[in-house]
Amino acid sequence: MGSIVKFSEAASIAIHGVILVAKSEKFLNVTKIAEILDGSRHHVAKVMQRLAKDGFIKSMRGPTGGFVLAKKPEEISFLDLYESTEGKITIEECPFNRQDICTFEKCILNNITPKMTKDFIRYMEKQFISDFI
């Protein structure tokens, strides 16, 4: 069955992974995060490296290493993490990418997709890691 909104695995790992790191009282490593999220260790490592590169978490090497937050939990929004993994959200006028060749005088979806995208952005920028720890 189809779904209107579906998060990529990377976006899901980013949000859930950072919440796990924020909740942990010690460094949390890739293996533990992958185990908790029931995900691929390799994919979790890739996402966490991206988040570290973008300054949301810090990576500590070694047998007792792992990740810690690089920012305060109230400074990290879901939108920050989503865009870190997926790229900047753009607001498209036409979900079919046919605005230049559309033969209809009026949008058959009544221009709902730009509104939905704006609503999604507003929602995600108001959700902070601190709200979930």
Could you explain the architecture of this structure?
The protein is mostly helical and 133 residues long. The protein has one domain: Orthogonal Bundle (Arc Repressor Mutant, subunit A). A two-stranded antiparallel ribbon has the order 1-2. The chain is built from 5 helices and 2 strands. It is elongated and about 65 Å long.
Q: Which structural traits does this protein have?
A:
Arc Repressor Mutant, subunit A, mainly alpha, two-stranded antiparallel sheet
Briefly, what is this?
With 133 residues, this protein is mostly helical.
Could you give the topology of this structure?
Layout: H1 9-23, H2 30-37, H3 41-53, E1 57-60, E2 66-69, H4 78-86, H5 112-125
Antiparallel strand pairs: 1-2
- Nearest-integer average pLDDT: 91
Oligomer: single chain
- Determine the fraction of residues in helical runs and give it as a percent range: 40-55%
Individual helix count: 5
The portion of residues forming beta strands comes to 5-15%
Which architecture does the CATH hierarchy give at level 2?
Orthogonal Bundle
Q: End-to-end distance, in Å?
A: 33 Å
The outline comes out as elongated
CATH class: Mainly Alpha
Elements, N to C (H/E): HHHEEHH
Radius of gyration: 18 Å
Adjacency order of strands in the biggest sheet? 1-2
Main sheet record = 2 strands, antiparallel
Low-confidence stretches: none
The SS-based structural class is mainly alpha
| CATH fold node name | Arc Repressor Mutant, subunit A
Domains, number: 1
Number of strands: 2
CATH fourth-tier homologous superfamily = Winged helix-like DNA-binding domain superfamily/Winged helix DNA-binding domain
